[in-house]
């Protein structure tokens, strides 16, 4: 009986210059183009030459020929130590990630945050935003607090309002699992006439834009909801 699906004749799939798990740039014999533009180990331009000649020059120096710009014609290659090149690239990548991470600060709240702690956080948030950091607000619920999510949203919305002179919310607060989060970006070109601490403790006797007597009333008010534990309304 003739096999309707004969086996494919041929060897392994042709290697076009990259190993299956090799994510790095092409180098040495894996560079298959006929000619390349070469940069020396000291950064000097060596001009366009045959790839085999460029590789021979790299070998003579005990170094590697590394493709650094594959999309131009001819491709650009550098003569370098590949191990050192890879190390420098990884170090640069980690440094960039660390730099990006340092540009975002986080402030954490609880639904039952008291007035003093809340105002301290707002002062710090104003400092962060005035220094150009993005600010992430997070509020986490525990246990039966999930039954009163509106209290958490009130805290986050209040914080966004108290920080509006220094930054704008990228989107409305969102609930994911047990956490409400919101991201605030600093205002570009915000003039800072007074420090945040001066704004928080102004001459008019106010904190976070509210008179002391109003905050005292808020602090002393307790919600008795199904024995939930009495969350101060902020």
What does this structure look like?
The protein is an alpha+beta fold and 234 residues long. It folds into two domains: 28-83, Translation initiation factor 3 (IF-3), N-terminal domain (Ubiquitin-like (UB roll)); 102-219, Translation initiation factor 3 (IF-3), C-terminal domain (Translation Initiation Factor IF3, 2-Layer Sandwich). Helix content is 32%, strand content 24%. The protein has six helices and 13 strands. The chain has helices at residues 51-60, 82-101, 115-130, 149-162, 196-200, 212-220, and strands at residues 35-39, 45-50, 64-69, 76-80, 104-109, 134-140, 167-169, 174-176, 179-186, 206-207, 210-211, 222-223, 231-232. The strands form four sheets. Strands 5, 6, 7, 8 and 9 form a five-stranded mixed beta sheet that branches. Strands 2-1-4-3 form a four-stranded mixed beta sheet. The protein has a two-stranded antiparallel sheet with strand order 10-11. A hairpin with a 6-residue loop joins strand 3 and strand 4 (76-80). The radius of gyration is 31 Å and the shape is elongated. Mean pLDDT is 76; it is low at 12-21 and 191-234.
- The beta-strand count equals 13
Counting helices, strands and paired strands, the structural category is alpha+beta
Rg (CA only):
31 Å
The CATH class of the largest domain turns out to be Alpha Beta
What is the helix tally?
6
Strand content: 15-25%
Rounded average pLDDT:
76
> Could you give the distance between the termini?
83 Å
Q: What's the order of the H and E elements? A: EEHEEHEHEHEEEHEEHEE
- Architecture of the largest domain, according to CATH? 2-Layer Sandwich
Please state the overall shape, judged from the principal axes of the Cα atoms. elongated
């Amino acid at each position: 009986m003739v096999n309707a699906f004969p086996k494919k004749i041929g060897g392994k799939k042709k290697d076009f210059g990259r190993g299956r798990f090799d994510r790095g740039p092409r180098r040495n014999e894996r560079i298959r183009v006929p000619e390349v533009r070469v940069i020396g180990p000291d950064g000097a331009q060596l001009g366009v030459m045959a790839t085999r000649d460029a590789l021979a020059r790299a070998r003579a120096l005990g170094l590697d020929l590394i493709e650094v710009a594959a999309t131009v014609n001819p491709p650009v290659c550098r003569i370098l130590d590949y191990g050192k090149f890879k190390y420098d690239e990884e170090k640069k990548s980690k440094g960039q990630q660390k730099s990006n991470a340092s540009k975002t600060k986080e402030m954490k709240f609880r639904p039952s945050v008291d007035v003093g702690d809340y105002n301290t956080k707002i002062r710090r948030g104003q400092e962060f935003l005035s220094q150009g950091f993005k600010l992430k607000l997070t509020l986490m619920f525990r246990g039966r607090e999930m039954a009163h999510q509106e209290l958490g949203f009130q805290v986050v919305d209040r914080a966004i309002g108290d920080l509006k002179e220094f930054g704008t919310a990228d989107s409305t607060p969102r609930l994911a699992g047990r956490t409400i989060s919101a991201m605030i970006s600093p205002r570009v070109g915000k003039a800072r006439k007074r420090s945040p601490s001066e704004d928080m403790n102004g001459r008019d006797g106010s904190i976070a834009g509210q008179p002391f007597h109003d905050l005292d009333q808020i602090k002393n008010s307790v919600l008795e909801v199904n024995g939930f534990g009495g969350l101060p309304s902020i």
